[in-house]
Amino acid sequence: METPKPEARSLNFIEEIVEEDLRAGRNDRRVHTRFPPEPNGYLHIGHAKSICLNFGLARKYGGLCNLRYDDTNPSKEEQEYVDSIKRDIRWLGFDWADREFYASDYFERLYEWAVKLIEKARAYVCDLSADEVGKYRGTFTEPGKESPWRNRPVAENLDLFRRMRAGEFPDGSRTLRAKIDMASPNINLRDPVLYRILRAHHHRTGDKWCISPMYDFAHGQSDSIERITHSICTLEFEIHRPLYDWFIRELGIYAPRQIEFARLNLSYTVMSKRRLLELVRDAHVRGWDDPRMPTISGLRRRGVTPESIRAFCERVGVAKMDSTIDVDVLEQCVREDLNRRAPRVMAVLRPLRVVIENYPEGRTEELDAVNNPEDPSAGTRRIPFSRELWIEQDDFMENPPKGYFRLAPGAEVRLRYGYFIRCKEAVQDASGRVTGLRCTYDPGTRGGQSPDGRKVKGTIHWVSAPHAIEAEVREYDRLFSVPDPGGEDYRVHLNPKSLQVLTGCRLEPGLASARPGDRFQFERLGYFCVDPDSAPGKPVFNRTVTLRDTWAKVMKRT
After folding, report:
1. Helices 306-316 and 45-60: crossing angle, nearest 10°?
2. According to CATH, where is 2.40.240.10 located in the chain?
3. CATH 3.40.50.620 residue ranges in the chain?
4. Architecture of domain 273-341+471-557
5. According to DSSP H, which parts of 226-360 are helical?
6. DSSP assignment, residue 387?
7. Contact (CB, 8 A) for 280 and 16
8. What CA–CA distance (Å, rounded) separates 430 from 443?
9. Phi/psi at 225 (nearest 5 deg)?
């Protein structure tokens, strides 16, 4: 019997538009998209949705996708961000071949188009300050007021604009503005600024330009130059689309089609670049790649796979209305992917020593352990077993409640892949704290099976004390303690338990050869990844995600 093929998902509204354009023969039946980041910060999970959408459309319809940096604000842009963006896109599984472009590549042409608008009396040089421009602009309920310099002669505007480029005027003293409609209900059409005087070193053009085009002026024209067919933007740009189209129409140049979709909002985090920069700058996190950050580099360092991010973006889909996705959807995609690929190992994060008194001193035996029950091809490994073991402190209670099936005085449990052991006695220090257990084992239960059919309900993990390696483990949790940490006081919602550093953890000896980026499931504990901070003999592991969603239970207890 043939396995039924999964049903193809329905088209999202952007795919419907693209397919209609293809059927109608528009753009010579081309599909050419672009991903246009501003190099003023690291990419985050919201950008991943846009990356998957833009590169995914090109891939699905046999088209092309450009990487274009909209680098029009040199005061906030750095080469570090440029490099990180390329690294993140490639890690996600996409490539732009030889189509890496920059808005700064087009500065000369943009300048020429600005001159053309002046010549058409559709742009003018304005002497209002930035604050005055804002006041003259009006409000959403009141029309704006025309600048006193709105009707300067074309020749004077051309002369002033050339002198602006030549550096004759101080920063902020003059702007070039489009002449559209100060009474427009769309505030973006109220004579928007096209150029400002800004002396700031540009990461690519250096000090060549002392005037900078505004994003709204550069963006659409860059799309036109690259002959983009479908300019995919997030919803906040919908109100900018009439301006986008106005520039294209007034200049008489190739017209891409702008389409807006809902940006990705994720619970228990912030997605604003400004706020992410504040978290880094004010040392609330350890950098842009801190595993608590929603940045792609932070997710990568945490151990999240590119496959799980792509699956997450596919699962949340493409919509026209903004919404907030529960972060558990992302975490579940990570679990599903790592469950298939991550080798299983045993690790004890909060060690408690166990001495098996009837096990021969000096003896070590090798036990077989399954590497991944989801992947038979992963095979098995050999793990050492000896008289002295480490188990988790939480796997023992002196006075257990009803329903507790782990170790307690007189109780018996199964050691994973090992033997049945029974607790005889708890060893305590002078303060009464339990420091170790004395136990016995049943030699006939090797592999966790009893020949007499005896059943035990509890199975715990362990590592052999003489063979274990010592490691640091960083338990990461959600960065914020509330689902919506928005608002200017968002930092008051930072989760004080978002990072707990555990030292003296004990791991299987086979993990001594693990390398940064390697991912594992620590049995019963969660998924973990080797951190770049690791050094020979001093491994550091990051918790990627727990085995199941425990957040609701944690919040209920607290």
Report:
1. 80
2. 273-341+471-557, 347-461
3. 13-261
4. Beta Barrel (2.40)
5. 241-251, 273-281, 296-302, 306-316, 327-341
6. S
7. no
8. 34
9. -55, -40
Any idea which residue has 């002078």 for tokens? 430
Query: 207 — alpha (psi -120 to 50), left (phi > 0) or beta?
Result: alpha
Distance, in Å, from the CA atom of 306 to the CA atom of 93, rounded to the nearest integer, reads 7
Selection from 520, 166, 198 nearest residue 342 by Cα:
520
* CB of 294 closer than 8 Å to CB of 48: no
Q: Annotated active-site positions, please? A: 38, 263, 273
What is the rounded CA–CA span in Å between residue 286 and residue 269? 16
The Cα–Cα gap between 213 and 211 comes to 7
Token pair, residue 103, equals: 């808005």
Q: Distance (Å, rounded) from C-alpha 521 to C-alpha 461? A: 12
Report the C-alpha dihedral over residues 504, 506, 507, 513, rounded to 10 degrees: 40
DSSP string for 194-244 = EEEE----BTTTBTS-SEEE-HHHHHHHHHHHTT-SEEEEEGGGGGGHHHH
Q: Which residue has the tokens 């959807």?
A: 329
C-beta of residue 40 within 8 angstroms of C-beta of residue 273: yes
Structure tokens that stand for 497 in this block: 């338990």
CA distance 391 to 122: 76
- The structure's pTM equals 0.92
Q: In whole angstroms, give the CA distance from residue 71 to residue 241.
A: 20
Show pLDDT as tens, one digit a residue, over the chain (558 residues): 333 334 457 899 999 999 999 999 999 999 999 999 999 999 999 999 999 999 999 999 999 999 999 999 999 999 999 999 999 999 999 999 999 999 999 999 999 999 999 999 999 999 999 999 999 999 999 999 999 999 999 999 999 999 999 999 999 999 999 999 999 999 999 999 999 999 999 999 999 999 999 999 999 999 999 999 999 999 999 999 999 999 999 999 999 999 999 999 999 999 999 999 999 999 999 999 999 999 999 999 999 999 999 999 999 999 999 889 999 999 999 999 999 999 999 999 999 999 999 999 999 999 999 999 999 999 999 999 999 999 999 999 999 999 899 999 999 999 999 999 999 999 999 999 999 999 999 999 998 888 888 889 999 999 999 999 999 999 999 999 999 998 889 999 999 999 999 999 999 999 999 999 999 999 999 999 999 999 998 999 999 999 986 544 443 333
Extract the runs of DSSP E, i.e. beta strands, from 6-53.
32-35
Fold that domain 13-261 belongs to in CATH: Rossmann fold (3.40.50)
The CATH superfamily assigned to 347-461 is Ribosomal Protein L25; Chain P (2.40.240.10)
**Contacts (Cβ under 8 Å, ≥6 apart) of 2:** none
Q: Phi first, then psi: give them for residue 287, nearest 5 degrees.
A: 140, 175
